[in-house]
Amino acid sequence: MQRQSLIIDCDPGVDDAVGLLLAFGSSELDLLAVTTVAGNVSLERTTRNARILRQLAGRTNVPVFAGAQRPLRRPPGEAAEFHGAEGLGVLETFEPDLPVAEGTAAQAIIEAVMNRPEGAVALAIMGPMTNLALALRAEPRMAERLGPVVVMGGARSEGGNITASAEFNIWADPDAAAEVFASGCRVTVLGLDVTHQVRATQARIAAIAAQAGTCARTAASLLRFSQDVERRIVGWEWAPLHDPCTVAWLLKPEFFRAVPCRIEVETESDLTRGHTAVEFRVDPASARHHWVVEADADAVFALIAERLERLP
Ligand code: BDR
Ligand code: CA
Known about the structure:
Blueprint: E1 4-10, H1 14-24, E2 29-36, H2 43-57, E3 64-66, H3 80-83, H4 105-114, E4 121-125, H5 130-138, H6 142-145, E5 149-152, H7 168-172, H8 174-182, E6 187-190, H9 192-195, E7 199-200, H10 202-209, H11 214-233, E8 239-240, H12 244-251, E9 256-265, E10 276-279, E11 289-295, H13 297-308
Parallel strand pairs: 1-2, 1-4, 2-3, 4-5, 5-6, 6-11
Antiparallel strand pairs: 7-8, 9-10, 9-11
Helix pairs in contact: 1-2, 1-11, 1-12, 1-13, 4-5, 5-8, 10-11
The structure holds beta-D-ribofuranose and calcium ion.
The site of calcium ion has 10 residues, from helix 1.
């Protein structure tokens, strides 16, 4: 079976961390690089956290590139109350052995995509879309050359999680998201409408915690942290599993149902900044965007548990 070349662009972030571990444990993916962005916490922290996860998973062959320190034209807005001050919940952070790679995230994305056949490199975006927007500004031909772009972001029927109208990743850099959606890239979007269906319940966390490996126990601790925060701030008994859905979709698209659409992002209004306007009245044959509406949550969690078992 042909391995899917992939770059993960992320802001770890407890759920990003679980998404990274899922990818590290999945041999069908040829993980070319992890790129980081400021989002949940500062760029310095998200980059260190990605390097920590890489070390825990023993995947020192995967370079980590640091990306944008701030959104295109907004001040950075963090979500540390959902991820802990260091971004990895209660996990003890440390300075990893391997350094960050030389060059920027945008350059790394451009190089990987432009030096491989058209459509060969997929991109999973788990944070604000600043790095891809910068890459597209520098190399607009990327829009045609990129393989599948799968994004965690946005909200339609569920409403927002950072404001009434907006989901955090799109809200954090609405201008970047608007540019990416307008660029012509093929983008599949997993917003809150679907990630709220993929619930880290007590039983699902317990199934992961029962495994012996460090990575599985780390993932269980991250999920428990999210569950505690969700209980305290939102009042739910379970935390939604956002970012790992992007990797799960690449591995097993049959676990999800996606609808062709056109997505635009509100960039000007203070009230509805970052709102994703999803138009389903499009020609399915030429639609560049897909909005995911349904997930098989049991299957997604079983996949995560199975892949974590392969890691140290
Ligand atoms: C998204 O926002 C971040 O806080 C999470 O890591 C996820 O990417 C969910 O809205
Ligand atoms: Ca994230």
